[in-house]
Structures are given as C-alpha cells and as structure tokens.
Design brief:
Largest sheet: 6 strands, mixed
Radius of gyration: 24 Å
Shape: globular
Strand content: 15-25%
Strand order of the largest sheet: 3-13-12-11-14-15
Distance between the termini: 75 Å
Bound molecules: alpha-D-glucopyranose
Structural class: alpha/beta
Number of strands: 15
C-alpha cells in the first residue's frame, strides 16, 4: 500500500536553509522497516554503552584532577596546563581602542573593540570564512590570509572618518589563536599540535606569533601584536569583566577546552621565571587532550575508537572527541551505519548519502532533540531532505533517543572536567560562575541543564553552587581586554620578560 500523505509544510534549519516536509504514516508501506520492538532492543544496548553513572563520573573527576596537577608540576605533559601570562583579573577600567583577530575553528574574525571602562565596550567586526584547503595548506599562507583580512578591515573601518587612525598611532592587537601553544611570554606561542581537524603544514613546533608578525610586515600596518591568547582565556577574562563571580571559562564548540585563574605558587613548572608566588595567572588547560594515547579513564565505545582512528590525529584529543561539536554527529552516523550493515535500518533503500564520513552534522542532533511534533516532522525532514531516506515513527524515535544519549554523555563528561577544576581550586563551598561559550553550549537544547545535572551527580546538592552562564565574547572582547591589561602591565614595567 502506498504511504498516505497527510499534509505538507516547511521548516527553516539553523543554517537558514528551508526544507519541505510531508507528513505521512509509513507503518504500513511496502518498504521493509525495523519493528518497534527491534528498535527498543537496540536502544537498550546503546543506553548501556553511552550512559555514565555518577560513580563512574566521580572516578573520572579524580583522574582528571590528578592530570591537572601533573600538568602544572611538569612541562610537556599530555594535558599541558599552559601558563598564559595573563596576570589576574581585569579591573573593569581598561580603556581604549584595540584590535582583535580570532582564528577559531570555522571562521576568521577581525574586530575593533573600544573598551569604555565600567565593564562597557563597543565592537565592530567582520567575519571571513576559512576554506578546508586553507586549513590544510601551508601555515605561512594561512597567516598571510589573516594579515590580508586585517589589512582590509583596517582600510575599510579606520581609513577615514571618525575611526581614522591618527598619525603615529599604533594599535595594540590581541590575537586569539585557539590551538594549544606553549608560551614563553605573552606575545609568543609555539604550536604544540593542531586540533579540530586543522593540519596546515610547517606550523607545528613553530612560534605562530612570529609567523603572523612576518605576514603582518608585508602590509606595513600600524599594528602591534601585544598578546597571543586562547579563546578560553579570552572567555575567562571577558566573562569576569561583566560578571566578577566568574572563576572558570569553558568552550563547547568545534573543540572543547577550559581556562581558570591559578596561584603562581601552585605552578611549580614556572618557578624559575621570577614571578611573585602570590601573583595570579590564567591557565589554559587544553583539557581536550585528557586521556589521549593511553585511553585509561574515559568510557570509549567502538564508535569513538573509529572516530579517533580515522581522524587526522589518531590518539590525540581523546576527551574532546567524545564531547565537541566536530564529532557528535559523526558518532551518531557511525551507529546508524552499523545498524545498516546489520540489516536493521533502511533495508531496500539506498544509503550512500549517509555513508559519507562527517556528513551528519551535529546541528542535526540539536534539531532532532528539539523537534516538538508527535510525528517527529523535523526528523523526517532531515532524513528525506539530506539523505533521501524514508523513516518510520519508531525509527525516528530511536534516532532522537540516540541523539539524546550522545548529547547527554557529552554534557556529563563536560561536567567532569568542570568538577575537576572546582575540586582542585576548592570552589565547591563558596560556589562559582562558569562562563561558557560555543555552539554546543549555545545551541544544543538542554546542554547546560545536563551539565548542571552532572555536577549534582558528582557533588550531590552542593553541585548547585556551580553555575554555568553564557559567556561574553572571549575571542573578541576578551582578547582586547587582555591586550589592554598587557599594555598596562608593560607600561608599568612589570615582568617585562614575559
Ligand atoms: C581545541 C583547541 C583549544 C581551544 C578549543 C576550543 O580544543 O585545542 O585551544 O580552546 O578547541 O576552541
């Protein structure tokens, strides 16, 4: 019997794309579909694979806390706990015009930030899309592109009129370069490894600040690279600028990482730098690398192993690969492909579209989870429009439940990371705010609630004392504030060597 059409409509995706949707009852149609019972049985299996018990979470937190300590004690650890040379919190009175350049995961952004004091600011910005080729091509070329965009931005926004640069004026620039860099001083950073799928050649092991300066010289711009920062450090400082209860910053986006403020006396590996032990310094944890290579602590499924083995960096970023937006869609896709291979799903249909790695966007998980309709129209739309696949209601319910398992696991693991910093710093009793940013945190329905639930599973009722909130723009505003703090510090003659 042909499927009966019961109505049509359209839905707009987060990407702005509009897709047409036809509702129909497919339970009786002629394609062979898995029964409700089969899907329920499979779901039970995945539930046990992807669920993290509170006890398991506490074990992870314990190992995580030890790993953080190790990174502070010794150089070159897997979780490198990078000293950033950002000393203490902003006063809120930082003022002036600053440029910020943000090389994250997807876009390149140039911003002009005017800090007005009292925690206020204005920002003008332009975004440039990075191509896959640029991410893999030669590193110097990538920095040439950054300098070129900066040049265009300055010409467009500061060539004439109100914002025009005064003769002799030199603008301080904060460069947010969100990859692990070990820093000897604030305007230096040796790229330890690319993450998030980047692989530009001749860059790992080199000072990216020097490479960028070389590109900048070609344009003779009145700009001085004042600080090289990580997005998490920027987020920490920007969030504290507007909410002084902020003690930790986390990014849950294409990548996953955290920064927090540490006592210099508790960072033994920088003892030799002659910094006052009573001073405070932001630490970029690079926690995405937790459990890399050894895979001792995290509950990896075989899908996670495939994601890892087929990535451009096998063994690396083990924690990040279970959490970040770059990988969640791929994990779900691999489960679906297994069920296709086992002959459970989509029998008699052509599944080639779904068989392409990374084709299942993490945004689809968000959309499936937030589908408000009983028939799961959004899920129908995704599968018919993007993959030309027909689904039954039982299958769609299964897909949505699977998205929930994967999304929930990511949030609960994130809670483990936050809990490790909270335990290490003793913030549980007094409580603290955690500034959070990134597409997962901002767009995935229920992600923040699941992190909070996870914190309560770890700490009991006191877990309520730790609250995440949407962070200020760390890579733009944060970068500018750090450039301002650094300029003030250097003008005051403090720790000129770093
Ligand atoms: C990756 C990068 C890290 C960054 C994070 C979030 O983990 O290594 O530097 O902070 O992604 O963008």
């Amino acid at each position: 019997m042909p499927a009966s059409r019961r109505g049509s409509g359209s839905v707009t995706l987060l990407t702005g794309q509009t897709i047409a949707i036809h509702t129909r009852t497919q339970d009786e149609e002629d394609l062979p579909h898995a029964t409700k019972k089969t899907m329920a049985d499979h779901l039970r299996k995945y539930e046990s694979l992807f669920t993290l018990t509170p006890q398991r979470m506490r074990m992870i937190v314990e190992a995580f806390t030890e790993t953080l300590e190790l990174g502070l004690n010794k150089p070159n650890q897997i979780v490198p706990m990078i000293p950033t040379f950002v000393f203490g919190w902003p006063t809120g009175e930082e003022k002036g015009d600053f440029l910020a350049l943000d090389l994250g995961g997807t876009n390149l952004r140039v911003c002009l930030v005017t800090l007005q004091g009292e925690g206020k600011f204005e920002i003008t910005q332009t975004k440039y899309r990075l191509t896959e080729d640029q991410k893999q091509d030669d590193g110097q070329k990538l920095f040439d592109f950054c300098a070129e965009c900066l040049n265009t931005f300055v010409e467009t926004n500061m060539g004439e009129g109100e914002g025009q640069l005064k003769p002799g004026q030199c603008l301080p620039l904060g460069f947010t370069f969100s990859y692990p860099c070990s820093q000897e001083r604030i305007d230096h950073g040796e790229l330890i490894r690319w993450t998030k799928g980047f692989g530009a050649g001749n860059t790992e092991g080199r000072d990216v600040a020097a490479m960028f300066k070389k590109s900048l010289e070609k344009f003779q711009l009145p700009i001085q690279l004042t600080a090289l920062i990580n997005d998490t450090t920027g987020t920490l400082i920007a969030s504290h600028y507007v909410n002084p209860r902020t003690k930790i910053a986390v990014i849950f986006g294409t990548g996953c990482n955290a920064a927090y403020m540490e006592h210099v006396k508790d960072v033994p590996k920088i003892e030799n730098l002659g910094i006052d032990p009573a001073a405070e310094m932001a630490i970029n944890c690079e926690w995405g690398a937790f459990d890399s290579f050894e895979h001792e602590h995290l509950p990896r499924t075989k899908y996670d192993t495939i994601v890892d083995d087929t990535s451009n960096k096998p063994g690396e970023q083990a924690f990040e690969k279970l959490i970040s937006g770059r990988y969640l869609g791929e994990i779900l896709r691999l489960v679906l492909c297994e069920l296709i291979d086992e002959g459970v799903l989509f029998l008699g249909q052509n599944t080639y579209k779904l068989e392409r790695p990374y084709i299942f966007d993490t945004a689809f998980l968000s959309l499936m989870e937030s589908d408000p309709t009983d028939e799961l129209l959004m899920v129908i739309g995704i599968f018919t429009h993007f993959f030309a696949l027909e689904t039954t209601l039982a299958e769609r319910q299964f897909f949505r439940a699977l998205a929930k398992l994967i999304g929930r696991r990511a949030a609960r693991l994130s809670a483990c990371g936050i809990a490790a910093i909270v335990s290490k710093m003793g913030y549980l009793e007094e409580g603290c705010s955690v500034g959070a940013d990134g597409s997962l945190y901002n767009k995935y329905p229920g992600f923040a609630d699941r992190v909070h639930e996870g914190l309560q599973d770890i700490f009991g009722d006191k877990g309520r004392n730790i609250i995440t909130h949407h962070a200020e723009d760390g890579s733009g505003v944060g970068s500018a504030i750090i450039a301002a703090m650094t300029k003030n510090r250097k003008d005051a003659g403090l720790y000129l060597h770093v």
